[in-house]
Design goal:
224 residues, two-stranded antiparallel sheet, 7 helices, 25% strand
């Protein structure tokens, strides 16, 4: 089977122990061909969407790309399993995410029922999702081209991934899939804790992002 290179982008902040563990897990548990970009975000720049856009445009060299938070630990064959879904559903797979232990319930598209990622088993079938967590997601460049940039104007720190996911579903043929056979542990909230800006109100930003997100859901007419 053809194994195209996946470009992995990892933003690090200022926790060497946490970030080193993440990088070590990628180095030791990734068998699929990859190119790893480790990006220094030590000052805690809040416009994550703007950073993602610039990384894709200025640093991107490969068709398949993956963004992953630095407070994660990947398990064996994580990327291989995710790419298996991406390639087997090449006609409509825009985003593939792994199973994790730090994420709430998700609603399945076809059944409309909720499922907890904590209760999914590695042997469970691939699930199509209306929305996903952006802590680790694989995508292809075509889905980015057709969907457009991540919105960093309306979503300063929170929500740029969620808005992009629903815009992709609304504006393109691409879908979001979860691969239960791939597992990535997510510590969560690490980047928020390390931002060096006492003037930035995270609670207010999250509230504004949620308000903007639901406005976009209504505008796009997609169910979540």
């Amino acid at each position: 089977m053809d194994q195209p290179v996946v470009e992995i982008f990892l933003l690090k902040y200022k926790s060497p122990t946490v970030e080193s563990s993440c990088i070590d897990s990628i180095l030791h548990n990734t068998e699929w061909p990859y190119h790893l970009h480790i990006v220094d975000n030590r000052k805690g720049t809040k416009n994550t969407g703007d950073i993602w856009n610039r990384l894709i445009k200025d640093w991107g060299h490969y068709y398949y790309k993956l963004f992953i938070d630095s407070d994660t630990l990947v398990e064996k064959l994580w990327l291989t399993k995710m790419m298996a879904v991406m390639l087997s559903k090449k006609s409509d797979a825009g985003v593939v995410v792994p199973r994790t232990d730090n994420c709430g319930e998700i609603r399945q598209v076809h059944t409309g029922t909720n499922v907890s990622t904590r209760k999914l088993l590695p042997t469970d079938p691939v699930v199509e999702l209306p929305l996903a967590s952006g802590f680790c997601f694989l995508f292809n460049y075509s889905s980015y081209q057709h969907t457009g940039d991540f919105d960093y104007t309306n979503f300063t720190f929170y929500g740029q991934d969620s808005e992009w996911f629903i815009r992709m579903r609304a504006k393109t043929k691409y879908k979001i899939y979860l691969q239960p056979a791939s597992f990535v542990h997510h510590r969560g909230a690490h980047s928020v804790n390390e931002i060096e800006d006492d003037s930035f109100d995270f609670k207010k930003d999250k509230q504004n992002s949620l308000k903007n997100f639901w406005a976009k859901v209504e505008e796009y007419g997609v169910g979540v």
